[in-house]
Amino acid sequence: MNIRTLTVIVVLVLLGLFAGLNWPAFTAPTTLNLLFAKVQAPLGLVMLGVILALTLLYVLFSLGVEASALIEVRRYARELYQVRKQLENEEESRFLQLKGFLEAEFARQGETQAQLSKALSAGFGELRQGLEALEKRLSTLPEEQRQALEEELERLATQIDTLKLQHREIVQKIEAAAERLRSELGPAAEASE
Fold first, then answer.
1. From CA 111, how far away is CA 70, in angstroms rounded?
2. Cα distance between residue 161 and residue 157, in whole Å
3. Do the Cβ atoms of 106 and 181 come closer than 8 Å?
């Protein structure tokens, strides 16, 4: 109950108490001038009737204001629900677009990784063949040159092995990052559905 209604109730109770204490004066007949006629009636009862009529009008007016406010709040709630639903649909659409983009990106990265692996494997194969050819030629060289070339070949073989290890590490990092993104994308996709 708000303060305005409480104030009206307190005033009406006090007025009723006043009327009850002075009831004989309220019911005493008197001549009343109504501009177009004169009437014999108790002035106190007429005034109480006027106050009750005004109170009834106030209550009806308050109910009307509250009803219109309630209708307005419901209308706003419906509009808010529709806007929220529309935003959720738009967010889901953007999420699906992002999911499609990421899947295409993963596929492209996979293809690039496969091509890179093939190219590196082919390059490693060519290097091995070149090393084998050099080893054959080494056997025909004098001892001093052969030792220098063998050392260089060992250094190159070590570099090739290092490159292979780095290639594997890069591939593993790419696969781990792709798997992490897939796992993060998976729960988000389930949540939106």
1. 61
2. 6
3. yes
Calpha distance 174→46 (Å, rounded): 93
Q: Where are the domains of the chain?
A: 3-192
Q: 157 Cβ partners below 8 Å, 6+ apart?
A: 131
pTM over 0.70: no
Give the integer Cα–Cα distance in Å for 108 and 81.
Answer: 40
Cβ–Cβ < 8 Å for 29, 41:
yes
Alpha helices in 22-142 (DSSP H): 23-27, 43-138
User: For residue 78, what pLDDT is reported?
Assistant: 95
pLDDT < 70: residue spans in the chain: 1, 138, 141, 186-193
Structure tokens given for 137: 């030629």
Cβ-based burial of 131 (10 A; exposed 0-12, middle 13-18, buried ≥19): middle
**Long-range contacts of residues 162-167, Cβ cutoff 8 Å, at least 24 apart:** 163/120, 163/124, 164/120, 164/124, 167/117, 167/120
- The pLDDT tens digits of the residues spanning 139-161 come to 776 777 777 777 877 888 788 88
